[in-house]
Write a structure and sequence with these properties.
With about 250 residues, the chain is mainly alpha-helical. It contains eleven helices and no strands.
Length: about 250
């Protein structure tokens, strides 16, 4: 009669309900096993980036849901959904800090495994960029149906409080996404230097230019317009050029 060793017994153990529901066997097999890693911190590199993808998958779904709620004239629900999308980015941001524990020299050992890939190829990152215009169109259409301009929404926020909350949630999201892009750039510079070519073949100075991109620029232009309008009311000379925003 054979006697099972602990390893044999473990291999025949039936997965728990928790494991089956979350498919943890598949999830935990998505990272390279120790024998295949170029460096022991490659596990950190993969886990962090896979974390991004999972939360961004949820984020894209929430953005779509918020757009549907705006189209259905449910701005209260849309504002709540958008806050959830913002909160998801609050999870992503701390995750990137784990990569700062990987030294520049160790990262150079990991880098060949990525080949010519880059964060710009991320399905989740690209999904957010693709979802943003549709979400904005849904918000702009909701403003049109309410017969309120973006400038008036900010000038008289209590008159359309739910739409104002949506605008602020969209601003929060844009800000968080911008901060992530900045943090990701600084991480690349921290690992590779200020003049290096990124893993996707893009020079660092070109990556810096992407920090000028915003998902919802009209929300930021609205601040300029509001400042200009308020200064006119107060008889104060404008502090800077804010015309041409088309928000009045």
């Amino acid at each position: 009669m054979s006697i099972d060793t602990p390893s044999k017994a473990a291999s025949r153990r039936q997965p728990t309900t928790y494991e089956r529901y979350l498919r943890t066997d598949e999830l935990l097999a998505l990272q390279k096993p120790p024998a295949e890693r170029l460096h022991r911190d490659e596990l950190t590199f993969q886990v962090v980036h896979q974390t991004f993808e999972l939360w961004w998958k949820l984020t894209v779904e929430l953005m779509g849901r918020a757009g549907e709620e705006l189209t259905a004239d449910q701005p209260d629900e849309a504002a709540r959904t958008l806050r959830r999308a913002v909160s998801a980015q609050d999870v992503v941001m701390p995750a990137i800090r784990q990569l700062e524990f990987v030294s520049p020299r160790d990262f150079l050992d990991i880098r060949p495994g990525l080949g010519d890939g880059s964060g710009g190829e991320s399905p989740g990152f690209l999904g957010i960029l693709r979802a943003a215009p549709d979400l904005w169109d849904a918000f702009a259409a909701a403003l049109d149906r309410a017969s309120v301009s973006l400038l008036n929404l900010y000038a008289h926020s209590h008159a359309h409080l739910a739409l104002f909350e949506c605008a602020e949630a969209l601003t929060d999201f844009d800000e968080q996404f911008h901060l992530f892009r900045a943090a990701h750039l600084k991480l690349a510079q921290r690992n590779l230097g200020l003049r290096a070519i990124g893993t996707g073949g893009t020079p660092m100075p070109s990556l810096e230019k992407t920090l000028r991109d915003l998902l919802f620029p009209a929300l930021w232009e609205a601040r300029d317009a509001l400042l200009e309008a308020t200064q006119r009311e107060q008889g104060i000379a404008p502090s800077g050029p804010a015309s041409g925003h088309g928000l009045s």
